[in-house]
C-alpha cells in the first residue's frame, strides 16, 4: 500500500464505517499484494479471482479485529489473513486425484527422472514443464506441507518470515519443511517404483 500511516488510519476508519469509496481505494491498494499470495498458494480447483474475493470479504468483515501495533503494519495483517484463507482453501480440497507416471507428459516425466537420479544436467525441456510437474506433486501433499514448501523453497522466504505469515513457531516450521520435502521425494520415488518399465 503506498500510503502514509496517517492515510492508512483514515482509510481504515472510513472503511470500518462502511464508506464504499474508501473500501474501493483499500481494495485497489491491497489487490497486488493479495493476488500475489493467491497465485502462490492457489488450490488446484479454485479460480484465483474467487479466492481473492473471499480474502477481501474476510478482510472487511474482520476489519474491527485489526489493531494498530508498533512494528506490525496493516499489510502484514492482510498477508497473514490471505495466507490463512489460502490454507483453508487447500484443506477444503478433500479429494486429491491420484497421479500416475503414465499420465505425465514426456517433458514432465523427464523432469521427474532427473529429480530421482540426481543427474548432473537437467533435461533439455522447457522449465515450465518442471513447474507443472512440481505443482502436480505438491497437490498430492497435505495443505500444510504444500504451503511450507511453497513459502520456503519456491518463494525463498526465511523461517522467520514463514512464522510471521502462518503463525507457526520456528521449530514446527523446520520440522514440517523437512518432513514435507521427504514426502515429496517419496512420492516421486513411488511413481517410479509403480512404473518400473516406463520408458522416458
The quaternary state of the protein chains shown equals: single chain
What is the correct CATH architecture of the largest domain? Up-down Bundle
Secondary-structure class = mainly alpha
Helical fraction? 55-70%
Structural shape? elongated
Helix count from the secondary structure assignment:
9
Distance N terminus to C terminus? 48 Å
Tell how many strands the DSSP assignment holds: 0
Number of domains: 2
Order of helices and strands: HHHHHHHHH
Question: What would CATH call the homologous superfamily of the largest domain?
Answer: PhyR, sigma-like (SL) domain
Polypeptide structure, described:
With 200 residues, the chain is an all-alpha fold. It has nine helices and no strands. It has helices at residues 5-16, 20-40, 48-61, 74-92, 106-117, 127-138, 143-154, 159-166, 170-194. Helix 2 (20-40) packs across helix 3 (48-61) and helix 5 (106-117) packs across helix 9. It starts with a helix and ends in a 6-residue tail after the last helix. The relative contact order is 0.10.
